[in-house]
Amino acid sequence: METGVAQRPIEDLEAYKEKLDGSVFKSALLMRPVFEAARAKARRIVFAEGEDERVLRAAQAMLEETTERPILIGRPEVIEARIARAGITFKLGTDVDLVNPENDPRYRDYWETYHGLMSRSGVTPDLARAIMRTSTTAIGAVMVQREEADSLICGTFGEFRWHMNYLTQILGREGLHPVGALSMMILEDGPLFIADTHVNMEPSAQELAEIVEGAARHVRRFGLTPKIALCTQSQFGNQPGGSGARMRDALALLDAAPRDFSYEGEMNIDTALDPELRARIMPDGRMDGAANVLVFANADAASGVRNILKMKGGGLEVGPILMGMGNRAHIVSPSITARGLLNMSAIAGTPVDHYG
Q1: 51-89 residues labelled b (16+ CB within 10 A) or e (exposed)
Q2: What pLDDT score does 65 carry?
Q3: Which of the residues in the chain have pLDDT under 70?
Q4: Strand 262-267 to strand 227-231: parallel, antiparallel, or no bridges (unpaired)?
Q5: What CATH number was assigned to the domain covering residues 9-177+325-356?
Q6: CB 69 within 8 A of CB 96
Q7: Cβ of 113: how many Cβ atoms within 10 Å?
Q8: Omega before 320 cis (within 30°)?
Q9: CATH code for the part of the protein at 178-324
Q10: CA dihedral in degrees (243, 254, 195, 218; nearest 10)?
Q11: 178-324 matches 9-177+325-356 in CATH topology
Q12: From residue 80, how far is each of 54, 90, 98, 140 by CA, in Å?
């Protein structure tokens, strides 16, 4: 505030501190089951943007709070300078492993691995060499593919789909493919999950059904019972076409097999969150209480709601969680904090068999 960098000066710093403390407490409470599961088995987490100060602070916290050993991709001289500037205490090579994209003995192995995966998709040896020098996301994905790391976290800068392209190329195999992005928004009255915020711009009925199934699995990771609402402008068939039709088709796909979670739709957001309103509109509905997961018919709506809750509703985001990739990679958003990266490292550090 003194320098003019802060665009929204705070009148009551003590009240602001109490609000932040409350948010951190809620985050820690909801993340407890995830951290406990992550501590059960040490996993190797690689950070694509290892030079970012937020990543460095998250790595320091990982060493203090989890059993994971971080792997950083970045230039050692840059990381050392930023560690010193930030007062971070870990030592490269001793506490944290390093991959130097400019000079690493595994470089040949990495570009040959990438070329072997992509040679029939137009990637020449020269291009593979260039990508393994310039794309830290691709390097991290190759490490996971070679089982030199268990999970990759990327996305502190750049566009989501740019990162996802490399993840899909390298890790989208053996039945794995990006299903959707799920964000948990921690609000004053509890958590609310939003999907799909990034992966499918206009998901088909089949993709919507997969998003719902994936969301149910991941919500349970936080010790919560999923109650999923399929949200769109249409409400229980009152609009015949458009996104409502896709939602109804998704509902039919979900109904085709027994499910061990609660879901309902298609409906408006207020109907999803207000059980009394929903009871008036649909007295014989299949879901009790307020929904804690909102699945949208397109990414514009999901992303818009997520950002409004974050910027105007005081929501603290955990995620986005990339569903469908077997917990082998997650793409965060550029606005993520060091604490957010720590939370994502715990999610990445949880063995898949813990949540199905």
Answers
A1: bbebbbbbbbbbbeebebbbbbbbebeebeebbeeeebe
A2: 82
A3: 1, 5, 14-27, 353-356
A4: parallel
A5: 3.40.50.10950
A6: yes
A7: 18
A8: yes
A9: 3.40.50.10750
A10: 180
A11: yes
A12: 14, 10, 11, 20
